[in-house]
Amino acid sequence: MNTLTRSVAAFLSLTIALHSHQQPEAGPHLEATANLTSAEQTFDGDPYLLDIDIVSGELLVSIEQQIVLEHEGREIRFNSEASSATFRVEPSSFLPAIDAALVRLQLPYYPIDSCVVSGGRLGEMGDPIELIHRNRLVRLCCAGCLPKFNKDSDSFIATLDTAVVAAQRDAYPLTDCVVTGEELGGAMGAPTEFVIGNRLVRLCCKGCVRKVRKDPARFLAMIDAARPHDEHEHGEHGGDAHEEARPFAGDPYLLDTDPVSGKKLARVADLIVMEHEGRELRFNDKKSVAAFEKDPAKVLAAVDAALVRLQLAYYPTDTCIVSGEKLGSMGDPVEVIHRNRLVRLCCKGCLAKFHKDPDSYIAKLEVAATEAQLESYPLQTCVVTDEELGGEMGEPVDLLIGYRLVRLCCAGCEPRVRRDPLKYLALIDAAIKAQSKPNSPKGHKGHEEGHGGGI
Asked: Would you say which domain of life the source belongs to (predicted)?
């Protein structure tokens, strides 16, 4: 993915609890997949699936007040005519941020590990091409597949839709229509199945499609609430290590300094956020961004060293995640930063195996980190909403950021933590200090060193 510069609010405020606006009647691609052949389906695009005004960086207002713009076949939503006008002046300044956020939002639900065009395994030809087509994520093995996809995009989207339905139907948590409450497959006949943002929604009839497209946040949240906690697909924490690992989208930037100037970062809303080779960096100003782009390797070396120091105290295992060997038994461990996350290996020989299947190894580390910190977690309430964990919202959502466990009342709180991780880690650290109970199996001093160390 190309390097993207954008406001931090735009990139980090993606959420499962989405805000949306009324759309025209859904196209035929949203009908039950079983009732349509690929040739018959036309993909008209998904609604805007982010919860922010991309220009102002503010959370979207109520559906009735939103300004909806169609730009090159895709929908974008704003809080005001002023934001819409600013976007129209220079769309290229904002579309990369939207695309990057939509990739992160949809990646955990992506249904296949192969290129939908060539059939080749994703990753075999380098990092996959991640394309946002009318607000829908499509992953390709290489740039050479782009012309073929663009030539017959409806057919390839239909193939992906079929894969989504097949992958999610058995685990779908509701037996009733999420809109009307009618029994699925009852008096209304066979359920209507459609895909939005690579998510399956099952309805009693086609007439309910429009209502879901009008307010996907409401209905996707209802589906998530019905799903048992260990089946939640929020994708940021490890599940059963024996299951297929979900893609690791990366941690947010966890340092509290500008990686170029070394100065303390400004407030979150004023930062410039860059995605570089799949990882996030944050800067105070364009001057720092320009300096970084001249010599990324030099800056990244310092960032990586700081992230190693920051995460080492929380690292959950003393063995190599690839070989199982004791770390240090073959000399100093190899310490890799993968998308802002520390991984420790026994030797360089394990690097190739790790890079071949990083998601699987990260998932195992996340399981270990969660288990290590769960018992000593200092809060009984959600760090974002103050709702009781395990109360009316159901089982808590366990999120890991830089190997720090953050327990939330629901998946909808995750984007707020990712937007401003240092704020919420500081609240957890304050609770640890108040209880004099370290949130680490090592009795570490990590929380004393700070939740966002500098370079």
From this structure: Bacteria
